């Protein structure tokens, strides 16, 4: 038996020079007319005006073709950049194991959709784990380090029971990336440890189901706790050096912070926010702005980020000197000591009793 397949002819894609084909043809016709037609070689006013009109039309067509080609290429580049952002820096889920989340990045490079900051949140057997970091410098040069750290975090967060082991996995991934990049740049003189300037500030959080928060900080700004109409640092002290700058010590100081109570939120940020300046050189008053936001909003993660972002852009006039990223995590879990009261006639539904007072 002989089987025949019929194939539809594939439509050929137009190349990048396709918009220039018609104006080029016009130009060839115009030059041929100018060189061969006796009327075109006449020196009277009408002939000169006709020749000028022909060549003006050809030039306009060429310019329009170039503009269309550039616009098409720009749309392709933007589509690729947005696809890379969705894979590399995925949007945070709005809810994760009883927590409400939101994340936002503001690249310093105009027109960029990704920069040198990173963040992620995952629900693991050990709790909800959150990472936020900042690659040295800003812009597109740090995307390789961002990919190395985030890729390692997304795998190791499910496997490492402690934040210390998780941080060591991230450090090894960054060192491998730095070494590979160095060998690619100078194959004749490979450096096993990678370039010394390749480092990343990293903040790791482990939010347990009861609200306990564990933090491990490598050169990153401490987060803020939002609640009770105020904003305060979640922890203070000197963090470890940035990841990749020096070897990790034998003992990693994992800090157990105060419990995140229901309704409270954590505000994570990169140093591009606190170090942003206005035209007069004054730093952005981040803690003051957060205190104002905590007093006038219900701490919805997206609303908190929108308010801080608007205040930051107003302070800097829309000109950022470094990439800025925000992550907000709000505890929406219901306390275990809340019991439901049976529905009474006329009530809209069950209501929780007042929780017993808890101390931090």
**Number of E strands:** 13
Provide the succession of SSEs.
HHEEEEHHEEEEEEHHHEEE
Q: Describe the strand arrangement of the main beta sheet, using strand numbers.
A: 1-2-11-10-7-8
> What is the CATH-assigned architecture of the largest domain?
4-Layer Sandwich
> Structurally, how many domains make up the residues?
2
Rg over CA atoms, rounded to whole Å, is 30 Å
Tally of separate helices: 7
Q: Which class of secondary structure composition applies to the elements?
A: alpha+beta
Percent of residues in β-strands: 15-25%
Shape: elongated
CATH superfamily of the largest domain: PPM-type phosphatase domain
CATH class of the largest domain: Alpha Beta
Note the gap between the termini. 81 Å
Major β-sheet annotation: 6 strands, antiparallel
Quaternary form? single chain
Mean pLDDT: 80
CATH topology of the largest domain, what is it called? Phosphatase 2c, domain 1
How helical, in percent, are the residues? 25-40%
Instruction: Point out poorly predicted stretches.
Output: 1-11, 189-196, 339-360
